[in-house]
Amino acid sequence: PSPRYLVGARDRIDFSWNFQRAVLDGRWHYIRDFRPDLWPRPPSHSFRISAILQESRRLHGEGAFTGPGASWLEKSGIPEELYDTQSDPHCLCNLATDPAQAGRLAEMRAALREWQVRVKDLGFLPESIMARTAETIGAPAAIPAATLAALPDLALAWQQGETARNGLLAALGSANAAKRHWAAFGLGQLQDEPTTVLALRAHLKDVSPAVTLAAAWSLHRLGHGDTASVVALRAVLAGSHPIELMEAIQIAHHLGPAASDVRADLVRLSAMKTPPPFARQIAFAAEFALSRMPGPPLQ
Questions:
Q1: Angle at which helices 279-290 and 242-255 pack, to 10 degrees?
Q2: Contact 236, 209 (CB under 8 A)
Q3: Cβ burial 159-194 (10 Å sphere, 16+ → b, else e)
Q4: pLDDT one-digit tens code per residue, 75-100
């Protein structure tokens, strides 16, 4: 028998991370973006080889590409979307905030949560944490479900607003690196507050690069990105683990000119054309990050 719902997933494409899940019932299309702070469709290798994507981005940058199609290139910041594909087949009218759809939204949220628990959705683990854990226990599939248990609620806690702050600050002290990562991310979505800034600064030297990067990105979003954040970013870029390098380069890309002091590190990584694994992706990622920073073009 046909299932009631189909679930779609999106994580890393080339070197760019997103963490999105979709639930479809044949008519209604629900999308949950767990990282709405990231560009939903950032530059990737596809933009290098696709003439239409290059032209679309060029026109959009010049302000000459507008209308519904242009929204595909914009940073949405929208955590939830709901579309009626029967009346809106191109999914242009987001009904997630429509009070009339509150019941349907709750139902599809619950369906997604049930699926994520049932299949042990590893998307809640930053890929560098997943890779490091798998190196220890043999494979991602062997990661215990208990490692993920608290992450779904923690990943969404920031949407509760200021009432979530104390819980996120407490989670920042967890022995579970994934919990610290989501806590650091969530604090960056709240209002600027001295206790939060101090706590995030303390994790710029976290033993997990994923936590360090989340802390640096959140400090930047709160208006407190400074030399200490850039030093922390450079420390990760000086490493050799390919997944950690790609995560660090993506943060550098989002920081743009604020991360100009790591330009030399990115130039070095842009020349990485041989192993380790992912070297080609690392090189492309570094090139794209450099494109957002002042300085001479790569030769």
A1: 10
A2: yes
A3: eeeeebbeebbebbeeebbbbbbbbbbbbbbbeeee
A4: 778 899 999 999 999 999 999 999 99
Upper half-sphere CA count for residue 68 (Cβ side, 13 Å): 7
**247: CB partners within 8 A, 6+ apart:** 17, 126, 127, 128, 209, 210, 213, 236
Q: Which residues contact 55 (CB under 8 A, 6 or more apart)?
A: none
Tell me the torsion sign for CA atoms 40, 70, 296, 273.
positive
Residue keyed to tokens 């494979």: 139
Cis bond upstream, residue 276 (ω within 30): yes
Cα–Cα separations (whole angstroms), residue 133 to 4, 23, 116, 122, 287: 34, 29, 19, 12, 29
What's the confidence (pLDDT) of residue 260? 94
> What pLDDT is recorded for position 299?
62
Task: Report the relative pairing of strands 16-24 and 80-84 from DSSP bridges.
Answer: unpaired
How many C-alpha atoms does 133 have within 13 Å on its Cβ side? 20
**Displacement of CA 48 from its chain's centroid (Å):** 21
Residue 278 is predicted with a pLDDT of: 84
The gap between the terminal CA atoms of the chain, to the nearest Å, is 57
What pLDDT score was predicted for residue 109? 97
pTM: 0.92
Give the gyration radius of the chain's Cα atoms: 20
Chain segment 207-258, per-residue pLDDT in tens:
999 999 999 999 999 999 999 999 999 999 999 999 999 999 999 999 999 9
Residues 6+ apart with CB under 8 A from 100: none
Given a cut of 70, the residues of the chain with pLDDT beneath it are: 42-43, 45-47, 297-299
Instruction: Write the CB contacts of 142 (distance below 8 Å, at least 6 apart in sequence).
Output: 134
